[in-house]
Amino acid sequence: MIDVSVIGCGNMGSALITGLSEAGEYHITAYDVDPDAFERIEQYADRTTTDLADVTDSDVVVLAVKPDIVPLVLEDLELDADRTLLTIAAGVSTDVVAAETDATVVRVMPNLAAETQNMAAAVTWDEPNDHVAQMLSDLGEYVVVDEDLMDVTTALNGSGPAFVFYLLGAMADRAVEEGLDADDAETLAAQTFKGAAETVLRSDEDVETLIDAVCSPGGTTIEGMEILWDSDVDAVVGDALSAARERSAELAEEAEK
């Protein structure tokens, strides 16, 4: 049983609490300054508290607050050297957090799919941390990256779900315009994205080869792909990712001032 505390019960903190609860093998303490924040996670947390001192005995303390709140929390958070402080604040480097605590600091960029244990996460650490590795595995898939790549992972898997929601919505909306029921269109679009993503994860083939596998000569798919290939949609999607990465870098600069 891993004792975990989550500081901040907003969208990401709540997703982590829910996912870890569903995974089992965790004793979860949820902390927030606002008691109303506990309503959405009360059934998943073993304990809720507004007293920061209640989290200090946990094996892993997750700092799930907005970047500008991080310094305020760290001022009052006292952790021993045998604790792990896992920070998920976008743009806040490991060094910035480590300078304010005796705990071992691990930086993770997760996403909201932690709630359903389908999270994509990037982690940076000085050396592998067994507790954190177990948590990330129970919540989905993770990769280990160097600290200087955290800005791009923030854009890719942190902001990425919003980009996917946008594309999914565009496909569903056009299907509705073509006559499909709205709920049916959303179900088919969502399951199509889910199935395609699972295929990529399980296949040894690259994305281009998988596209070719769906495209029969003279068929329907290649007709649609010709529209995409002739457009600049790949550049637009790439620009969206780059904009998110640049904002993450800006947040890092602000946090270090």
Automatic annotation (TrEMBL):
* Pyrroline-5-carboxylate reductase catalytic N-terminal domain boundaries: 4-91
Whether Lipoprotein counts among this entry's keywords is no
What Gene3D superfamilies does the record tag this protein with? NAD(P)-binding Rossmann-like Domain, ProC C-terminal domain-like
Which GO terms of the molecular function aspect are on file? Answer: pyrroline-5-carboxylate reductase activity
Cellular localisation:
Cytoplasm
Q: What is its EC number?
A: 1.5.1.2
The UniProt record gives the binding positions of NADP(+) as: I7, G8, C9, G10, N11, M12, A64, V65, K66, P67
Pathway of this protein?
A: Amino-acid biosynthesis; L-proline biosynthesis; L-proline from L-glutamate 5-semialdehyde: step 1/1
- Keyword Cytoplasm assigned to the entry: answer is yes
Q: Which reaction does it catalyse?
A: L-proline + NADP(+) = (S)-1-pyrroline-5-carboxylate + NADPH + 2 H(+); L-proline + NAD(+) = (S)-1-pyrroline-5-carboxylate + NADH + 2 H(+)
The enzyme's main class, written as a single word, is oxidoreductase
Q: Where is the signal peptide?
A: none
Keyword vocabulary terms for this entry: Amino-acid biosynthesis, Cytoplasm, NADP, Oxidoreductase, Proline biosynthesis
Q: Name one GO biological process term.
A: L-proline biosynthetic process
Instruction: Say which family it is in.
Output: Belongs to the pyrroline-5-carboxylate reductase family.
- HAMAP family given in the database record: P5C_reductase (MF_01925)
Physiological role? Catalyzes the reduction of 1-pyrroline-5-carboxylate (PCA) to L-proline.
Q: What is this protein called?
A: Pyrroline-5-carboxylate reductase
Originating organism: Halobellus clavatus
Organism taxonomic ancestry: Archaea, Methanobacteriati, Methanobacteriota, Stenosarchaea group, Halobacteria
